Amino acid sequence: MVNYKDLGLVNTREMFKRAVAGGYAIPAFNFNTMEQMQAIVMAAVETKSPVIMQVSKGARNYANASILRYMAEGAVAYAKELGCAHPEIVLHLDHGDSFELCKDCIDMGFSSVMIDGSHLPYEENIALAKQVVDYAHQFDVTVEAELGVLAGVEDEVSAAESHYTKPEEVIDFSTRTGCDSLAISIGTSHGAHKFTPEQCTLVNGVLVPPPLAFDILHEIEKKLPGFPIVLHGSSSVPMDEVETINKYGGHLEAAIGIPEEQLREASKSAVCKINIDSDSRLAMTAAVRKHLAEHPGDFDPRQYLKPARENMKKMYIHKIVNVLGSDNKLANCD
Ligand code: 13P
């Protein structure tokens, strides 16, 4: 049994409280590789931002659970080495699908877990979330639960259609589960193809997707004043990265994300955690494709992973500073 505090990690409680009060959101970036981890830490240190490094079940299977735990410990040490004396780094399980998986992560040093019972009948979702909360809180690990279903595909998580969160359920759900934050469904979805072109409107040659359901978000905020709300599926799918991928041999058609202005607006509300995975995948793939196309003789992974890491770092900094507003928000910036 390893407690996250021994790894230098923090849970989400204090950073969420500050984010809700301050009208900004904490970035939750998914990672499976060393380069993603390095880019996340460099970006967080440069901007003095708290950060959530999250791994899905698929990422754990890919990278190996023990390696990820040491990478998180290494992330804290690396942040300090880069000059951040008091980093606030959370290691979070994204979309935990069983009590056993959540327990395993908590026992291996995670400081936060998500139990995703959103596909279950309401009472079963409550029972499963409560079981995880009861275990996690013994170790001061924070728990995210979800109400409402997001469409899209991400690792093992997939749903054909979204179901918006019902505001009339949120008080009962959060009270009975004791969860620390609530992921809601208001029109975001997982992956790089969040909307079909038919769902969008053409404005100045750009496909603009339907707006997020801010009315539902505001109703939820009224029911749960100050309660931390989480948005999944919040990649913006930058067109320049998609174009680079397609220019250098890729084939990504009709990739459409959430406009950044909408995420900026959501960050000012009780939304205090915004999940971004696809944008990192796109930034990495675009840089690797470009490098290999321009340098066909290169075969040392460092030659193409270095620009990939730089490109991800640039994207993470942009999200922190221009979209989520979590720069200079460490409790202790010294
Ligand atoms: P994106 O696919 O929009 O990056 O969403 C990631 C996510 O929500 C992880 O849980």
Global shape: globular
- Structural class designation: alpha/beta
Mean pLDDT: 95
Query: What Rg is obtained from the alpha carbons, in whole angstroms?
Result: 19 Å
Q: Helix content range of the residues, please?
A: 40-55%
Provide the spatial order of strands within the biggest beta sheet.
1-2-3-4-5-8-12-13
Beta-strand percentage?
15-25%
Question: What is the CA–CA distance across the termini?
Answer: 32 Å
**What ligands does this structure carry?**
1,3-dihydroxyacetonephosphate
Give the ordered list of helices and strands: HEHEHHEHEHEEEHEEEEHEHHEHH
Segments where pLDDT lies below 50 for 5+ residues?
Answer: none
> Describe the biggest sheet?
8 strands, parallel, barrel
The count of strands amounts to 13
Task: List the total number of helices.
Answer: 12
Task: Explain the overall architecture.
This protein has 334 residues and is an alpha/beta fold. 45% of the residues lie in helices and 17% in strands. It is built from twelve helices and 13 strands. The chain has helices at residues 13-22, 34-47, 57-63, 65-81, 99-107, 122-137, 170-177, 214-223, 239-247, 260-267, 278-294, 301-324, and strands at 26-30, 51-56, 89-96, 112-115, 142-147, 151-154, 157-159, 181-184, 189-190, 201-203, 206-208, 229-231, 271-276. The chain has an eight-stranded parallel β-barrel, surrounded by ten helices. It has a three-stranded mixed beta sheet with strand order 7-6-9, with no helix packed on it. The protein is globular and about 60 Å long. The two termini are 32 Å apart. The structure holds 1,3-dihydroxyacetonephosphate. 1,3-dihydroxyacetonephosphate binds at residues 30, 94-95, 154, 190-191, 232-235, 275-279.
